[in-house]
Task: inverse folding
């Protein structure tokens, strides 16, 4: 399964007063409590992008990124709350219970067995709304869910930014173009081996990698600081990469 990077356990998220511009709705999931999702961007059109958040859930910085992406690419972006209101406490980094507890807790609350039916329900909703091509981006924890969802073959393109829990073999199930955006906080050997495996795919020429080695883990999600000019620009740079990639691949 892999583990959380050191920086994910050490660097607290930035707090923000940002007010998201989208809306929230709930979707029924068979056998589970309904899931709330955040929708932003135009609802017309046939393209949509699902955003899979980090361990801090529906953090305002993460939703600010979703708003920015939707505005830049002109597609609807939907962020499901897989944790159902729970998320790791923003004031508990580094975790007082220790890293093994944080690692185990996130894997428990965000296991693939729990995320899978939610993700399928979100896709069902988007398809019923006329969305014919779907992309997905994963931030930290969400990037691992991207890798685990690949075998569903329901997406046209993936983006993984500063992944957590990654292993090189996660590349083996990827069957559509992917963009990889590692930061300074991930294991570079894992990132390089993952990318090397992607380069053996028949669609390798449609994949893209941009390193953000000048940035810390989580710089495009809860650990972004849109009030800091440099950090805000690098977060925008990351979403601009996503925009270009999705517009070319969806």
Result:
């Amino acid at each position: 399964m892999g583990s959380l990077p050191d920086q994910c356990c050490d660097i607290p998220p930035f707090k923000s007063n940002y007010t998201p511009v989208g809306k929230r709705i709930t979707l029924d999931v068979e056998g589970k409590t309904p899931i709330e999702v955040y929708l932003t961007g135009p609802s017309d059109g046939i393209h949509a992008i699902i955003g899979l958040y980090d361990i801090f859930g529906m953090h305002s910085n993460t939703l600010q990124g979703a708003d920015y992406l939707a505005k830049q690419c002109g597609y609807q972006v939907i962020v499901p709350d897989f944790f159902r209101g729970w998320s790791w406490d923003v004031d508990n980094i580094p975790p007082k219970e220790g890293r093994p507890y944080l690692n185990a807790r996130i894997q428990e609350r965000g296991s693939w067995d729990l995320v899978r039916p939610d993700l399928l329900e979100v896709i069902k909703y988007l398809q019923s709304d006329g969305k014919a091509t779907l992309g997905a981006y994963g931030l930290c924890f969400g990037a691992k869910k991207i890798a685990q969802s690949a075998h569903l073959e329901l997406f046209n393109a993936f983006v993984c930014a500063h992944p957590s829990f990654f292993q090189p073999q996660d590349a083996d199930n990827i069957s559509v173009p992917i963009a990889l955006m590692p930061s300074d906080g991930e294991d570079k050997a894992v990132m390089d081996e993952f990318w090397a495996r992607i380069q053996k795919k028949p669609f390798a020429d449609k994949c893209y990698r941009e390193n953000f080695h000048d940035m810390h883990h989580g710089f495009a999600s809860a650990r972004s600081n849109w009030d800091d000019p440099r950090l805000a620009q690098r977060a925008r740079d990351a979403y601009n990469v996503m925009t270009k990639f999705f517009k070319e691949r969806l």
